[in-house]
Design a protein that fits this description.
2 copies of one chain form a homodimer.
Chain A (H helix, E strand, L loop, with lengths): L17 E5 L4 H13 L5 E4 L9 H11 L3 H6 L1 E3 L2 H5 L4 E5 L10 E3 H13 L4 E5 L8 H5 L3 E4 L11 H17 L16 H17 L9 H15 L3 H16 L19
Parallel strand pairs in A: 1-2, 1-6, 2-3, 4-6, 4-7, 5-7
């Protein structure tokens, strides 16, 4: 599923809401979160009291940086806070991610709705942050109380546990869709222009003529229905000019039988195209 | 972000398109994919020539099963194939996930569009599969050619590499949204009923009367504008009956000053409620 990887020639997307990891337990998970952020153009990583300490130095650095893959720059730029209040001080709004109901009277938004709201508010100049709790326990109630709204994910109720980096990934993915559009990152390969109807009808005439000649339409009374069915099959192919030429060449070959060693002159100059 | 985890009392969602891991390199990643599938109610895991072999036994089992967390049942039920052709034989349609353009004339769908189509087709009784290539290289061109359509993800073009389990997670998440709806898994805590206008207007009368008494509205000509602004602030709170009682109690307390040790009888019986 990879095969693209980090591309240093394309300017990286940046911005978006801050990702605030509250008391994350494992440095390696911080690295995985950085990677998920980079995938979707998020760049503001904030850490509140990481349990293993600040993963920029020492033994932790290796695991965190390996997990971050090409996104170590986000670890380098991450900010460290000793309280959640400090981490959200400059923000205009905060969303708390939780996997279960927390008994707090706040709006509960699905991640897509939350990120659509975030994209609008950021476009008006607001600064927002998304809070993620520790791996094992999630945010505690006092931390959730510091947020304006709750974000949750539609999950299998029998198996609702998302790991920290997965939750960051889903928020980042919905941010990307809301802020930058959900079009896939590439379009199909260039294809030959769509065939004009004239070309397709000429092909039908040729094909149906040959099929009639070899007695394909039996009983004859069914020819109109059989022809319509065939035509609809070809219509579903949405043929390009090259597709029509290739198909026509294929039928010509089947009709005429094996090619002689020295190919004879044809009346259909493009009938040998293979597409 | 967890705090919910595996719940054995709720029937697990199952079904959805098959997840087909083609030549996956690491057993631990197979386990992580199983976990991502379980999160979003997918249950048909197929492995084509896993590089480390079948992770049900031996040394591989430990890592794969640990990574699968509560989703080991998906590993137990997974099917093993020696070719992609065998793995897709019973399916009516296949989607190939790729991170880059593959020079093949197939429709390229974003994951959300693809899973919306999948939900419709599965509801008509079709069987579908999603192909995921090896971690490092992705699907090769012959494998992509076996698919009807290509699925890709909107990603940061400068950092487009998703790991295998992340790609499975995003497909599963979009499947969940398409097949089971995107509502968050819980609603806000039960709250007191929304306050009737009469109750809110009575509170405004009381509050504005007290504010007038203490000379808050200065200059007096601005009182209407100041009152409207205040009322709009309260309207944004979308108050419940309990909210109005709590707020009114707060104002009463501020107006009357410190409570005597033995509270005197009040004309507002509910004014001490704290909400």
């Amino acid at each position: 599923m990879t095969g693209a990887g980090t591309n240093h020639t394309i300017p990286s997307l940046a911005g978006g809401p801050a990702i605030i990891l509250v008391r994350p337990q494992l440095a390696v998970n911080i690295g995985m979160c950085a990677r998920a952020m980079a995938n979707f153009g998020l760049s503001d990583l904030r850490l509140v009291n990481p349990r293993e300490g600040w993963p920029r130095t020492g033994a932790l650095r290796k695991g965190a940086y390996a997990a971050a893959a090409g996104a170590v720059h986000l670890l380098e730029q991450a900010k460290l806070y000793s309280s959640l209040e400090e981490a959200v001080a400059d923000l205009n709004g905060t969303f708390a991610t939780t996997a279960r109901e927390r008994g707090q009277l706040k709006p509960v938004l699905a991640a897509d709705t939350a990120m659509t709201e975030a994209a609008t508010r950021l476009s008006f100049g607001e600064k927002l942050g998304i809070l993620f709790g520790p791996e094992r326990t999630g945010l505690d109630n006092e931390e959730v109380a510091l947020a304006d709204k709750i974000v949750s994910f539609p999950v299998n109720p029998a198996y609702a546990s998302l790991n920290l980096a997965q939750a960051v990934l889903l928020v980042g993915y919905e941010w990307m869709k809301a802020a930058h559009g959900s079009a896939p990152p590439f379009q199909p390969a260039d294809r030959s222009p769509a065939a004009p109807r004239e070309m397709i009808l000429s092909f039908f005439d040729y094909l149906e003529g040959e099929l009639a000649r070899v007695g394909f339409f039996r009983p004859l009374a069914k020819r109109p229905v059989m022809q319509n069915n065939l035509r609809n099959m070809f219509h579903r192919m949405n043929m390009s000019e090259q597709d029509v030429r290739s198909f026509r060449g294929m039928i010509v070959r089947l009709v005429e039988g094996p090619r002689a060693d020295k190919p004879k002159k044809k009346s259909q100059p493009s009938s040998d195209d293979k597409g």
